[in-house]
Amino acid sequence: MIDENVSKISEVSIVLSGAAGQGIQAVEHILTRVAKGSGFHIFATKEYMSRVRGGNNSTSIRISERPVHSYTDRIDILVPLSDNALERLRPRLSKDTVILGEGRYVGKEPNSISVNFEEIAESFGNKIYENSVSIGVLSGIIGADEDVLVKNISEYFAKKSQEVVKANVNAAIRGYELGKTLGLRYNIKPSEDVKAQLLMNGAEAVARGAIAGGCNFISSYPMSPATSVFTELSRLSNKYGILIDQAEDEIAAANMAIAAWYAGARAMVSTSGGGFALMTEAISLSGMIETPIVVHLGQRPGPATGLPTRTEQGDLNLVLYAGHGDFPRIIYAPGNLQEAYQLAARAFNVADKYQVPVFVLTDQYFLDSFYNVEEMQPVNVERYIVKTDENYRRYEITEDGVSPRGIPGYGTGVVRVDSDEHDEYGHITESAQVRKQMVEKRLRKEKLISQDFVPPTFYGNPDYEYLVVAWGSTQENIKEALERLGNDKIALLHFSQVYPVPRIAKEYFEKAKKVLFLEQNARGHFADLVKLTFGIDTSNRILKYDGSEFSVEEIVEALSQEVK
Amino acid sequence: MFETKLYDIPDADIAWCPGCGNFGIINELKTALAQLELEPHRVVLVSGIGQAAKMPQYVKVNMFNGLHGRSLPAAVAIKMVNPELTVIAESGDGCTYGEGGNHFIHTIRKNPDITNIVHDNQIYGLTKGQASPTTARGQVTSLQFDGVYVDPFNPIAVAVALDASFVARTFSGNFNLTVELIKMAINHKGYALIDILQPCVTFNKVNTYQWYRDNTYILPDNYDPTDRQQAFKIATDTSKLALGVIYKNPNKPIFEEQLAPYKTDKTPVAYRNLK
Predict the structure, then answer these.
(1) For position A4, what pLDDT does the model report?
(2) What is the DSSP code (8-state) at residue A428?
(3) Burial class (CB in 10 A: 0-12, 13-18, 19+), A121
C-alpha cells in the first residue's frame, strides 16, 4: 500500500534482505550511523529467523528529514542479498519500489537496477568488501556526507590491518560515486541537531534506564529477545560497578535477584515469557517477604517455544497473575525509548519504596528497533534502606503497610525474612490473627501504589469520538497512523503503566463514542483488564498475533474500517 | 568465646520431634558461631523449606528463609552483594540435593565463599516420610510401598567430582567433630559443604543413631584431603561412611572476588550508596 502523504523527497525506506550471516547487520550498523552523522533522522528495525546461518532475514531502515519512530511496510529501495529475498518480501513491494542489487538477485523486475557490488569489491582486492560497496551506493543515493561515510567505514574496520581499512574505504567511495549516478537521488534535508544525538535501541534504553535507577545487580539466563538488556548491563559492568551473574537457570536468577535486594543491592532479571514462567515462584516470594525484584520481560510469541525471534504482547496476563497468593505488583510497558529509559529507572525507585515486584514489559520489536534520540537525562535515585537497631522488626505493622526495610550488616539489628507467614519479627506463625494482619498490611500498600502512577498519554484532539487504546510498543506506530489518517475524530490513549490501571483513565473512556483496543495478542489482555477494572464495554478489539508488529499501514487500514 | 545464648530466640516454638537430630545440629551450630565470636548481625542463615530449613527460625542471626530448593542461589547473591557477611546456606537433603540439585552443581562450580550445611537424614520429614534423594535403594517408605527403586544420590562424590573447594561429612551425634567441621567450613575461603548425617526418629527407622554409629568412621589424622583420587575413592565407598574433611582444594578463585565492582574497590556493594 502506497501512502501519498509521505513524500519521497523527504524520506526513504530502505530494506536489506538476505540470509543470516551475510552481513546485513554490518550494513545496517554502518549505514544508519552514516545517515545520522549526515544529519538525517533514522529508524531501523529487523526481523530474523531463529537460526545462526541461512534462512532469510531483513532489516528496514527509514531515513528522513523529520523524526521517525515507527515501522512502515512501504519499501522505496529493496536490496536483495540472496535468492529468496525478493520473493519473501514481495507482499511489501509496490510499483514504485526500486530493486537494487546484483543482477542474479534483482531478477527481471520492472524497477530493478543491477549493480555489480561483488565485481567492484573484487577490483579492490576481495569480494568480501561488497558490503562496503553497498553502504557506499546507498550513502550516495540518500545524499549522505562523504566524510562521514569514510569515518564510519574506517571506525568499523579499525581493528583490521591498514590495508583492509583502506580497501574498504576505497570500495565505499567507489560505491558512493556510483550511487549518485543512479538517478535515485533523494533530497533529505539534514539537521545539525541530529548529528549530536545518540542511536539507541529498546534494549539499550532499558539497560541505561536501569543503571540510571541505580541498578547494580543482574542475574539472568540468556533468552531471546531479552538477552540484549543483560548483555548491555554486562558490557557496562566495570564502568558502573554492576554485579553480573549468568545463572544456571531462571529459577536461580530470580531467587538471586530477590536475595540481592535483601542484602542491599538494586537488582533485576531480564527474561522472556518461557523464562519468566520459571520465575513465578520467586515473584510470589517477593510478594511474601516484601523484598523487591525488578523484572524486564521481553515478550515473544508463545505458548512454549513459540516464535523465538518474533514479537507479541502476549505475556500481560502471565505477568498480571504470576505467583500464588495475594500481593501487590506494578507493571510498566514503555511506548518509546524515552519512556523505556524513564520507566526502567522508575521501576527501581518504586520497587524500593513499596517493596513489591515491578515489571517492565517490552517485546522483540521494541528491543530490536532503534532511532536517534537526545542524550537521556539523569534520574533521581530514591533509596529507602534504614539502619537497624536491636529492636528492629522487619515486618512492623504500619499505617500505610510499608515497613522500614533494613539490610543485614547495616546497624546492629538482625533482618529476618520468611517465606512462611510470619509475625513482625519475621518468625513463622500460624496465628489466624497475625495472618489476617499481615495479609492486610501487604495489600494496604496497594492504596499508596494506586496514588503514585504513571498517567496514560493522550494523543489527538480532545473532542474525539473514537478512542484507540493501546499499551507498550505500539505507541509510535499508532501515532504515525493517526497522523496519516488526519481524522481529528480519532485519538489515542496509550498506557505505559498497565497495572494498576490508572483510575483517571476512566474519564477518557466515558467521553468516547467508541473505544477501540489495539493489541498484539490473540485475546486482548489489556482490554480484559480494563473491563475488569472499570466494567466498561471493551469488545472492540483490533488484534494481531502473527509474530510481526503492526505496521503504520495496517493500523491505518484497520482504523479506516472501524470509523467508516 | 561468646555465649551460645547470644543466638537464642526466646519463646521459639520448635517444630522438631523429640530426639530429632536437628537438636544436636542447632547446638553444634551455635557453639561454632560462639567459638568463632561471630556477632549475630554479621551472620546470615539462608534456608529453603523442610524441617532442617527451619533452623534459622531458632537461631538469632540474620535470616533469609526462602523457597524450597533455593537456599544456594539466595546465599550466593547475598555474598555477592556483601562479601563481609558470614553466609551459611542450611537445608535438608531433599531441599539441597533434590529440588535444588541444579543449584548445588553450579554453586560448587562458582565457588563463592559460603558454607553449605546439609542435614542428611535420608528421608523427607516435613512431608511425612517419603524417600529423599539419599534414601537407600530398597528402603520401604510412606510412599514407596515396594521399596525405593532408584540409586541414592552421593553428594560427597558429586562434590569431589566437581572439585569443590571443601567437602566434609559428619554425624549430628558427634558434637566435637561437628563443631570443629562447622568452624573449619566457615573459616575456609571458598564454597564449603558439610553433609551432616542425622537420624529422623519419626520417619526413618533404618538410619538410626545406632546405625550411624555402626556405619561411620572418622578419617585418620594422616589422611590427606588434598589427594583428589583418594578422596573420590573414600566418597564412593559406601560400605562404611567416612567422617571428617574428605576433600579440599584451597587454590580455587573465589567467585565474588572476580566480579566487576570488586576489581579495584573491596567495599561491599551493599554499603556503597547508603545515606
Answers:
(1) 46
(2) B
(3) buried
DSSP state string for B29-76: HHHHHHHTT--GGGEEEEE-SSSGGGGGGGB-SEEEE--TT-HHHHHH
Task: Kindly determine whether residue B78 and residue A263, on different chains, have CB atoms separated by under 8 Å.
Answer: yes
Separation in Å, CA of B232 to nearest CA in chain A? 25
pLDDT 10s digits, A281-329: 999 999 999 999 999 999 999 999 999 999 999 999 999 999 999 999 9
Range from A9-18, A359-368, B250-259 carrying the lowest mean pLDDT: A9-18
The C-alpha cell 526495610 sits at: A405
* Torsion angle, alpha carbons of A422, A425, A431, A433, to 10: -100
Give the closest residue to A220 by CA, choosing from A249, A197, A242: A249
Cβ neighbours of A3 (radius 10 Å): 15
Of A6-15, A24-33, A85-94, which gets the smallest average pLDDT?
A6-15
Measured between beta carbons, the chain A residues lying within 8 angstroms of B41 are 388, 408-409, 411-414
Q: The C-alpha cell of A18 is what?
A: 538476505
Bridge partners (DSSP) listed for residue A45 = A60
A417 min Cα distance to partner chain B (Å): 5
Interval A345-377: pLDDT, tens: 999 999 999 999 999 999 999 999 999 999 999
A388 near B CB under 8 A: yes
DSSP character at residue A190: P
For residue A201, the surrounding DSSP H or E stretch is strand A198-201
Amino acid, single-letter form, for residue B111: N
Partner-chain contact A264 B73, CB within 8 Å: no
Residues 271-300 of A with CB under 8 A from B: 281-282, 285, 289
Sign of CA dihedral A451, A452, A453, A454: positive
Cell numbers 529453603 correspond to B48
The rounded distance, in Å, linking the Cα atoms of A61 and A45 is 7
Question: A43 with A153: CB under 8 angstroms?
Answer: no
Q: Which residue type, as a one-letter code, is found at position A212? A: A
- Using a CB–CB cutoff of 8 Å, tell me whether A267 touches chain B: yes
Three-state SS string over A2-41 comes to: CCCCCCCCCEEEEEEEEEECCCHHHHHHHHHHHHHHCCCE
Q: How many of the other CB atoms lie within 10 Å of CB of A496?
A: 23
B42: distance to nearest CA of chain A, Å?
5
- Tally: H helices and E strands in chain B: 8, 8
Does A393 contact B at CB distance below 8 Å?
no
Q: What is the CA radius of gyration of chain B?
A: 18
Q: Which three cell numbers stand for residue A113?
A: 537496477
Distance between CA B199 and CA A293 in Å, rounded? 38
pTM for this one?
0.97
| Residue A16: how many other CB atoms lie within 10 Å | 28
| Sequence-ordered alpha helix ranges (H) in B82-227 | 93, 101-110, 155-161, 175-187, 209-215
The interface predicted TM-score of the complex, written ipTM, equals 0.98
Burial of A95: CB neighbours in 10 Å, binned 0-12, 13-18, 19+:
exposed
Please give the grid coordinates belonging to residue A449: 501504589
Q: Do B44 and A248 lie within an 8 Å CB cutoff?
A: no
**Residues linked to residue A271 through DSSP beta bridges, in sequence order:** A297
Contact A100, A106 (CB under 8 A): yes
Q: How far is CA A63 from CA A358, A365, A393, in A?
A: 36, 18, 59
Question: Grid coordinates in use for A523?
Answer: 485475546
Q: Which three cell numbers stand for residue A57?
A: 532475514
